[in-house]
Amino acid sequence: SAVISQKPSRDICQRGTSLTIQCQVDSQVTMMFWYRQQPGQSLTLIATANQGSEATYESGFVIDKFPISRPNLTFSTLTVSNMSPEDSSIYLCSVPWNTEAFFGQGTRLTVV
Amino acid sequence: EDKVVQSPLSLVVHEGDTVTLNCSYEVTNFRSLLWYKQEKKAPTFLFMLTSSGIEKKSGRLSSILDKKELFSILNITATQTGDSAVYLCAVRNTGNQFYFGTGTSLTVIP
Fold it and tell me: Taking CB atoms and an 8 Å cutoff, what residues of chain B touch A93?
């Protein structure tokens, strides 16, 4: 199995600021997914991060708002920029591994 | 458009009841269907299904896939309060994309 360490676990941020979320995987993986889960909703894919190339963003998500870094095969960051209360969500990183997907512990973000 | 639909959206039962959660999908290039349990933040893996008609079982939980009718069910027998969670269904395609349903929120009352 793959073990993913995600941090911070939670944060309360002022609107207009930015937060960077980190995910560290204990194995090398090609693909890493970043999801958002708004209150009472399911997981929505923000982008797919591949090492050595630009992240691929889903409809409704843009690089200026959610810049992603993927410097190597074990690490990625997602930044939530210029935050507003609507960005309050759980953010999850995930990697496909063998037959399933493993998730980081999640970051609960509250924007005030 | 690829999509995964779960029903019901929420369910409240008493301890000892049996529940059936449903998942239907329309995903091109299907590879597998997965069930997850989400209690706090991170979903935890329950089952992975690839073949029709073969039941996967783990304790009081079981699941089966129908690839002809494009759905899966997750059964939980003799429910306990610890089963209270959101249950997510996801379909993985051959391109390693995962499509998640909206989830079913299960509450088990003592």
Answer: none
Which residues of B are less than 8 Å from A31 in CB distance? Answer: 96
For residue A23, the 8-state DSSP code is E
B100:A42 CB<8 A: yes
Q: Note whether A42 contacts B102, CB cutoff 8 Å.
A: yes
Instruction: Reply yes or no on whether the pLDDT at A12 is more than 90.
Output: yes
Residue of A105, A81, A74 whose CA lies nearest to A91: A105
Q: What is the 3-state secondary structure (H, E, C) of B64-106?
A: EEECCCCEEEEEECCCCHHHCEEEEEEEEECCCCEEECCCEEE
pLDDT tens readout for residues B8-52: 999 999 999 999 999 999 999 999 999 999 998 889 999 999 989
φ and ψ at residue A20, rounded to 5 degrees: -110, 125
